[in-house]
Design goal:
Length: 204
């Protein structure tokens, strides 16, 4: 794994807490893929504020979310409204894909105020006092943003009676209407529900 500014790997589950005080966590610039990816993960993943929050599940959900962006970029970006995409930011800010992320008239990345407020609150929580669940949540999002892609569903080839492309290609909050089209829900038995997110494969 590549090193990151936050150490050699993720911080999830049991283990010794880092010595306190620790250096404050900061997000990469919004102009970078890591900056956009990190903010998207913090926005889309279930946070420690939920009563049923599961730290390990949230980390795996982040891995799967990054894999979705990666798979869309390297398969057929036009299929996901991002014709000509060259980087993760192009996929995340494509029209109608991720609420709160878009492009301005000069192709600058724009965030909705609610997204900015949510992310700022998480970072403030992470840096407030001794490291706890919020600190680990933000740190894991930063780690996943920089780390190589690890798709929990890379072995998928066949679902619901037909072939699918390997890996995950979308997700929605659990209980939301399915996206339809060529998307196929990955069953819970296959790990397709992570931290309250239902993940989807896609037909070739």
């Amino acid at each position: 794994m590549q090193p990151t500014p936050w150490g050699p790997g993720p911080q999830s589950g049991p283990g010794p807490a880092p010595a306190w005080p620790v250096a404050p966590l900061t997000l990469p610039p919004l102009e970078t893929d890591e900056g956009v990816m990190g903010r998207m993960l913090l926005t889309e993943c279930k946070t420690p504020g939920y009563a049923d929050y599961d730290e390990a599940g949230a980390y795996w959900a982040m891995l799967a979310m990054k894999a979705v962006v990666h798979n869309r970029l390297w398969s057929s970006p036009a299929r996901f409204g991002a014709a000509g995409a060259r980087r993760y930011t192009d996929i995340i800010t494509a029209p109608g894909q991720w609420a709160g992320f878009s492009r301005g008239p000069r192709r600058e990345v724009l965030l909705d105020p609610d997204v900015t407020r949510h992310v700022d609150e998480l970072v403030t929580c992470a840096n407030d006092g001794p490291p706890g669940p919020c600190h680990r949540f933000v740190r894991n999002a930063l780690y996943v943003s920089y780390a190589p892609v690890q798709d929990p569903f890379a072995g998928l080839r066949w679902l619901d009676g037909g072939p699918v492309l390997p890996g995950a290609f979308g997700w929605r909050r659990e209980g939301s209407p399915p996206p339809g089209g060529s998307f196929v829900a990955i069953p819970r038995a296959n790990g397709g529900v992570l931290a309250g997110a239902q993940f989807y494969a896609i037909r070739p």
